[in-house]
Design goal:
single chain; 9 helices
């Protein structure tokens, strides 16, 4: 599988959230990230993705660096950059369909929508949450 990571410009709003420039310098670049990511087992990659989506800090410096690089990669993807553009119409459509089915389905749609918003928010928080480990 050929994976291409795109570097983010330094003036991007997610990059400005990190107040410590030393933290940004400690994050692995593309080849190092790919090497570190592919050396992880499938279980470890799944665990790391889950921790990033939940916004939890990691204890190990190497894992924290990979987690921050993974979050940057995910934020650079088109679906993440255009999140609010597809999320709001999709939510309204899903709620309209759920209202016709059953009130419990409306609750499921709202719960999934909240989970998507928190995952999107936590992709941007990973750098701040792991700043103490990366120093």
């Amino acid at each position: 599988m050929n994976v291409v990571l795109h570097a983010r410009p330094t003036g991007h709003r997610y990059h400005r959230r990190c107040h410590n420039r030393a933290v940004s310098a400690a994050i692995p670049e593309q080849p190092e990230f790919l090497r570190a990511w592919t050396t992880l087992s499938r279980k470890e990659r799944s665990h790391l993705r889950r921790r990033v989506r939940m916004g939890m800090p990691l204890a190990d410096r190497a894992e924290a660096g990979v987690a921050v690089a993974y979050a940057r990669f995910q934020r650079s993807r088109t679906w993440a950059r255009l999140f609010w553009l597809w999320y709001l119409p999709g939510l309204l459509l899903a709620l309209a369909v759920a209202l016709r089915i059953h009130p419990l389905v409306v609750g499921v749609v709202i719960a999934l929508a909240a989970q998507a918003v928190f995952a999107h928010r936590n992709l941007g928080r990973v750098e701040r949450v792991n700043a103490a480990v990366l120093e």
